[in-house]
């Protein structure tokens, strides 16, 4: 296993952080269409616009983007689509904090 020196580590983490920041901004800027339950990715991940799982909904998932309080928001799992904040899919992961 190759060890990573400090300079390479900082370069990798800095690049990752910049990519995540710019990627998130681009995701929010381009999300326009509301995700349909008939979308192939939505079907594969069992997306529903109304969660039936206690305590789990798109609004408290780590993948949701945008401002809290908005009903339709971009999601990192479904690029270019808006999900219902009350929805759920099998990729749901509780937002830290």
UniProtKB/TrEMBL annotation:
Residue stretches making up the High potential iron-sulfur proteins family profile domain: 29-97
PROSITE patterns membership: HIPIP, TAT
SUPFAM superfamilies linked: HIPIP (high potential iron protein) (SSF57652)
GO molecular function: 4 iron, 4 sulfur cluster binding; electron transfer activity; metal ion binding
Oxidoreductase is among the record's keywords: no
InterPro entries: High_potential_FeS_prot, HIPIP_sf, TAT_signal
GO biological process terms on file: aerobic electron transport chain
Keywords for this protein: 4Fe-4S, Electron transport, Iron, Iron-sulfur, Metal-binding, Transport
Xref: Pfam families: HIPIP
Function: Specific class of high-redox-potential 4Fe-4S ferredoxins. Functions in anaerobic electron transport in most purple and in some other photosynthetic bacteria and in at least one genus (Paracoccus) of halophilic, denitrifying bacteria.
Subunit structure: Homodimer.
Family per record: Belongs to the high-potential iron-sulfur protein (HiPIP) family.
The protein's name in its UniProt record: High-potential iron-sulfur protein
Organism encoding this protein: Salinimonas sediminis
């Amino acid at each position: 296993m190759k060890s990573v020196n400090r300079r390479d580590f900082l370069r990798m983490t800095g690049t990752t952080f910049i990519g995540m920041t710019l990627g998130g901004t681009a995701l929010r800027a381009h999300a326009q269409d509301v995700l349909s339950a008939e979308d192939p990715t939505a079907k594969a991940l069992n997306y529903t616009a109304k969660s039936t799982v206690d305590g789990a909904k798109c609004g408290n998932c780590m993948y949701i983007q945008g401002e809290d309080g908005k009903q339709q928001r971009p999601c990192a799992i479904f690029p270019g689509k808006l999900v219902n904040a009350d929805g759920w899919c099998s990729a749901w992961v509780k937002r830290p904090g």
